[in-house]
């Protein structure tokens, strides 16, 4: 997952939230657009400084985080 290297966490940028390297665009911003129905081309139009690989890196990063977490959804 080389693309994930495009995601950085720096306490001096966006309060340490995961961002795309060289930008102040948070992974959560990209995921919110995806949740809202945006396609990758639409996201690139919204954030022209990003590349398709950046968007995929945000998705890969979120996937990796979820795969490493135990998600509690309530009582059975």
TrEMBL record:
Protein name per its UniProtKB record: Hypothetical conserved protein
Chain segments annotated as transmembrane: none
SUPFAM superfamilies in UniProt: Homeodomain-like (SSF46689)
Pfam families xrefs: DUF433
Organism: uncultured Acetothermia bacterium
């Amino acid at each position: 997952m080389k693309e994930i290297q495009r995601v950085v966490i720096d306490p001096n940028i966006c309060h340490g939230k995961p961002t795309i390297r060289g930008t102040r665009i948070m992974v959560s911003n990209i995921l919110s657009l995806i949740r809202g129905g945006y396609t990758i081309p639409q996201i690139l139009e919204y954030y022209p400084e990003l590349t398709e690989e950046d968007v995929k890196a945000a998705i890969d990063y979120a996937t990796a985080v979820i795969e490493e977490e135990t998600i509690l959804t309530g009582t059975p």
